[in-house]
Amino acid sequence: MSHEGIRFVSREEALADAAQDNCLPREAVTPAKVRVHLTSGEGVEIEWKDGHHSKWTFPWLRDACPCATCHEERQHTGRKPGEPKPKPKELFTMYQAPAKPTSVEKIGNYALKFKWNDGHEAGIYSWDHLRRVCNCDACRSTRA
C-alpha cells in the first residue's frame, strides 16, 4: 500500500530491508571511548568496542554533515561526505573561518550533535554514521 510516495511495509519486510542495508556488528558501532577536542580544535577521535580507531578533523565533519539539507546538497553537486564545497571563482573572496564547533552535546546513547561556528546545527552524527564515514586508510580503501 502506498500513498503519495510513502511506502508502508510489514515488520518482516522492514527487517529484511535492514538486513540488506549492510548492517554493521554492534561492537563496530558502539564506542568504547569518545574524545572531542573542542578547545584545541583538533577534531574527534573514537575508539570502538571492536578495537577500531577513527579520527576526523572538524572541517571534515562539517563537510560530512548528515542532515537532510547537507545530504541533498552533496547529492545534487556530487560531493562525497567530507569533501569541501568548491571555492567561489571571485577575484576577492570573503574570508571564512575554518569549521569548528562552538558546542557539542551527546544525544542519548547513539549520537553527537554539533553547533558549528557558521550557525549550522541540524546534523545528528550517529555512531553508525560516524563508523561508516571512518576516515582511516583501511576504511577508505574498503569503500573505494
Automatic annotation (TrEMBL):
| Species this protein is from | Terriglobus albidus
What is the protein named? DUF971 domain-containing protein
Annotated keywords? Iron, Metal-binding
Q: Which GO terms describe its molecular function?
A: metal ion binding
Question: A Pfam family this protein belongs to?
Answer: GBBH-like_N
Query: Where on the tree of life does the source sit, at the highest rank?
Result: Bacteria
The record's section on Gene3D superfamilies has:
3.30.2020.30
Q: Gamma-butyrobetaine hydroxylase-like N-terminal domain location, by residue?
A: 40-131
